[in-house]
Amino acid sequence: MDTTGTLFLPPQNSTIASEVDFLWDFIYWASAAFFVILGVAIIYFLIRYRRRRQGELTSGKSHNVPLEIAWTVIPTILIFFVFVWGFQGYLKMQIAPGDAMEVKVTGQKWFWSFQYEEGASTVNELVVPVDQPVKLLMSSTDVIHSFFVPNFRVKMDVLPNRYTHLWFEATSTGEYDLLCTEYCGTGHSEMIGTVRVLGEREFTEWLEQAGGMGEGMTPAEFGEQLYTSKACNTCHSLDGSKVVGPSFLNLYNKEQMLTTGQAVVADENYLRESILNPQAKLVAGYDPVMPSYQGVLKDQQVDALIAFIKSLQEQ
Amino acid sequence: MATSHTETHHPNWLQHHFSSPFQQGESSKLGMWLFLLTEVLFFGGLFCAYAVFNAWYPETFINAHKSLSWPLGATNTIVLIASSVTMALAIRSMQLGSKKGTLILLWSTMALAAVFLVIKYFEYSHKFHLGQLPGEYYTYEGIAGTNPHIFFSVYFMMTGLHGIHVIAGMIVIGWMIYRTSQDHFSSDYYTPIEMTGLYWHLVDLVWIFLFPMFYLIG
Amino acid sequence: MSNAAATAAVPSYLQEPKGIKSWLLTVDHKRIGIMYLAAIMFFFFVGGALAVILRTELFRPEQILMDADTYNQFFTLHGAIMIFLFIIPSIPAALGNFILPLMLGAKDVAFPRLNLASWYVYVFGAIFCVASIVLGAVDTGWTFYTPYSTTTSTSVISMTLGVFILGFSSIFTGLNFIVTIHKLRMPGMTWFKMPLMVWGLYATAIIQVLATPVLAITLVLLIMERVLGVGIFDPAMGGDPVLYQHFFWFYSHPAVYIMILPGMGIISEVIACFSHRKIFGYKPIAYSSLGIAFVSFMVWGHHMFTSGQSEIAAMIFSFLTFFVGIPSGIKVFNWVTTMYKGSISLETPMVYAVMFLFLFMIGGFTGIMLGALALDVHLHDTYFVVAHFHYVMMGGTVMAFLAGIHYWWPKMFGRLYSERWAKVTALVIFVGFNMTFFSQFILGAQGMPRRYYSYLDQYQPLHGFSSVGAWVLGIGFVIMAVYLTASFFNGRKAGPNPWGALTYEWETLTPPPQHNFLKDVVLTHGPYDYDKVTVVGDFYDKSPTDKQHMAGKV
Ligand code: HEA
Ligand code: HEA
Ligand code: CUA
Ligand SMILES: [Cu+2]
């Protein structure tokens, strides 16, 4: 397994990667051969047969059947190989091994969330064990997104109202970029996450801990952790600056102007509604882009987030 | 390509860049056939949409088609076929040099097209009334099956597009009536009427596909 | 030549009739061609300026000139303008309109008024596209994928309506060309005596006529979806967003061959002419145009390998995709062989043709990589695709277009541009182009997704390099604009046949008179009979009296 990458390709960190790269190499070198042969011929002819004087006599040869056949048949044979390899690899990518571990993926503007069968859930960070096939069951809540991990050479569109699948088996521990490759609007280029590949034991430990509800932490501390792990930080700042959404600093009990012209006081109920059903009351001056966290966050987590927001009061 | 007529026969309706009436006539015909081909493909997209959704929701389509009145559809089919016949006869009549006959037949075609639209109007308004409208505006509740609004989306788009073609056809026929009455045509030159006829047959043909697809499923 | 006196006496199509009205109401294919040329060049510069601004923003990952929304609008506009307003009409409607009847020895296209109508329809459609900028520029990408395009708040309707209208202009042109080629060839010009440019335009026209209506209906459906909520692309209402993609690519894949086929026609002309040699493999080149057109209708699914279509569909689409490579290869091989034992002079059109050969090969080979299923999964929607299509569209079509512009410039305007500046510019463009886009192959293969306003730090060096390339490219085009404009004022006057070519557009005056030829033409020699007929091009004849153009026929 090549874990350093080449000029063109990133390191190979999944079982399928070497197969894809083999296909790349084959086409690359075959193309290079054609390119060099034809390129050299062009340059040689340009020099050898350059026009020396006007009215020079030129060949009247207009065709050559063996040649035509040769340059039809040879490329045909080559592309046949390319096709078969490409298709075989593709089939492998489609059909997940039976023992694969399953994770549910939801793409929405503009973050990824992952739900594990064991109850844990994460945002923008997919944690998987090494050397074990992982199958993703993916869907979107709004527009089309696409799940792409360059180092694994896997990619699949994530569609609304339909499930798509993708599987991979990571071959080395580490952190790899996870990118959204289907254009999905303003935050498309920020829809970036990480795939963290852990050793088997670390993974089991992580799974237990992540499924927990902030044991041993105060609610506000747990909320602070959720603030990053659930991606609130992509849109809300803690220092009063306006990003995509309003800042959390001094938000609690503040009077907010809504798009309807009404004013509301940001009490616990309002905060709760804003998280679970953000489109119900929109703050004036912002786009209605906040996703609903209904189903993503458990009650306890919402409480923790509210506790965290409440703790952000400047004197 | 060029024929021997070049110098000898140069009627005023021959355009400067053609060398003979034959060349001009052939060009118009080929052009018209190509245009009809684009029309077929234009509708073809909708036919594909129909095929897809029919395959996805076969039950809905069967249930929904019952709310269309097949006697009205059948009447309209007959009306359009009749109009195709009068159109063909109009061309024949001009070939024989009868201006009066041509005018009568063109007017009949026009009248039949109008009958078609009137019947369509009654069908449409009945559906509007029941709330059998496309997509979001669909409010009717009497059809079993998933997503019945899709059936009506496809129905209204296809018949609507066809209706627009009927109206366009009537405008062109009207123009032909005007030109005939102005003596623009003769037994030598009637290409525009012939082209109108081709177009009209296509409009008819499309309906002949639409009728069983929507009114006679299953 | 005996009618040298007549030459001076007969006014060219540019001079007669006079007045702005005579231009706006003209049915002369040459004037319509020039009007198209002006329009598409304008949009090329607009699209190019947008691209340079885009590239400047991408110079570094953080915000430099604009925010994410503006960036999204910019690349959408850049793509839509370049595709719908520039490249699709570029060679057929601008150069093709001018040259096709001349090559056929005809007085005009079959339907001159339809031809003028197509120009007005183009302008009308363009107004809608441009209006969308004012009404809150579109941010969907040029592909208008649902459900994004049905939910975004930007003016998608104005843009798609514009594209819908433009489609009709394209259909009119295609229809006109097919009839013209079938019915208006000069006596003696059989199908296999037609110049290969005509074959290219013919194959193009077939695609225009067959594929464009499907785009039209697709856009109607999209507009219906937005206006009436008919729901056929909306998953929440039982529709299917992927259906839209099928419809869209059913047009847009063949459309990429609308872009390249006429370009290939130009390359055939230019290579034969400047090698002064009979074209090698006339029939294979001619048939391969039709072959490409035919296969192009069956491969659209290769844009959707990761969209969840069935494995069988993916397999068939991948298999057929490769079959476009074979006829394209046949062309390339025959072109190169045409240079063998030729007498090659490297004037500007030939320089662009050679550039075309190199760049199109790279573009084509990377197309094969994208067609290979397992590999496309990795490369799809990354900068690799961006690089691929700029290599074929900019490196292929635009280079062919530039070859054509420089080849027919004297015929169109009666003046020669500065050969020295033209060559320098070609070099600048070649270098700038490869800097801009070759680096994008690497970026894409490394995983850089397309349509990204900002990016991870590891991609910065290559992005920066690419941006510098775009500036070089921009400088190249500015120089070109200058020397081409200058040629109107101080360019050397061209005779009827500056390059010594054998196709029939060179048999008439330069620039041609209103009805193309002074008397009816009859085919006397094939378009590539360089072994039988020697023509001394007046470009080589430095004497200003310019007496013996075309006198050299043996
Ligand atoms: C002028 C336009 C043009 C042309 C000519 C082509 C030509 C080809 N294209 Fe390209 N393509 C585009 C414009 C074009 N393309 C655009 C605009 C997109 C992206 C759209 C978007 O998403 O925005 C795209 C995207 C695109 C994809 C989808 C990528 C993705 O999104 O994942 C694919 C996949 O198969 C593909 C394949 C090909 C192939 C196989 C050819 C072939 O025709 C190339 C054939 C040529 C050669 C192969 C070279 C010459 C041959 C030889 C010298 C002989 C030897 C050959 C062999 C041994 C094979 N193209
Ligand atoms: C004919 C088609 C065509 C052509 C010729 C070009 C030409 C260029 N394109 Fe374009 N491009 C597309 C069609 C084309 N493009 C399409 C279809 C897309 C996809 C859009 C989408 O995703 O929806 C795209 C996307 C695209 C992207 C990807 C954006 C993204 O995914 O985020 C980039 C980035 O580098 C790019 C760059 C360029 C550059 C630098 C040029 C250069 O070659 C341009 C050279 C021309 C000039 C430079 C003109 C000269 C004018 C001046 C010099 C004016 C001077 C003014 C200033 C400098 C301000 N293009
Ligand atoms: Cu999500 Cu792009
Ligand atoms: Cu394609």
How would you summarize the topology of this molecule?
The complex is a heterotrimer of chains A (315), B (218) and C (554).
Chain A: H1 17-48, H2 65-94, E1 101-108, E2 111-116, E3 121-123, E4 125-129, E5 133-140, E6 145-149, E7 154-158, E8 164-169, E9 174-180, E10 192-198, H3 200-211, H4 219-229, E11 255-257, E12 263-265, H5 268-276, H6 299-310
Parallel strand pairs in A: 1-5, 4-10
Antiparallel strand pairs in A: 1-2, 2-3, 5-8, 6-7, 6-9, 9-10, 11-12
Chain B: H1 21-56, H2 58-65, H3 70-95, H4 99-130, H5 148-181, H6 191-215
Helix pairs in contact in B: 1-2, 1-5, 1-6, 3-4, 3-6, 4-5, 5-6
Chain C: H1 4-9, H2 20-24, H3 29-57, H4 68-104, H5 112-134, H6 148-151, H7 156-183, H8 196-228, H9 241-275, H10 282-295, H11 311-339, H12 348-371, H13 373-379, H14 383-413, E1 415-416, H15 419-446, H16 460-490, E2 492-493
Helix pairs in contact in C: 3-4, 3-5, 3-16, 4-7, 4-8, 4-9, 4-14, 5-7, 7-8, 8-9, 8-10, 9-10, 9-11, 9-12, 9-14, 10-11, 11-12, 12-14, 12-15, 14-15, 15-16
Provide keyphrases for this structure.
heterotrimer; A: 315 residues; alpha+beta; Helix Hairpins; Immunoglobulin-like; Cytochrome Bc1 Complex, Chain D, domain 2; 3 domains; 5-stranded mixed beta sheet; 34% helix; C: 554 residues; mainly alpha; Cytochrome C Oxidase, Chain A; two-stranded antiparallel ribbon; 66% helix; disordered N terminus; disordered C terminus; binds heme-A; binds dinuclear copper ion; binds copper (II) ion
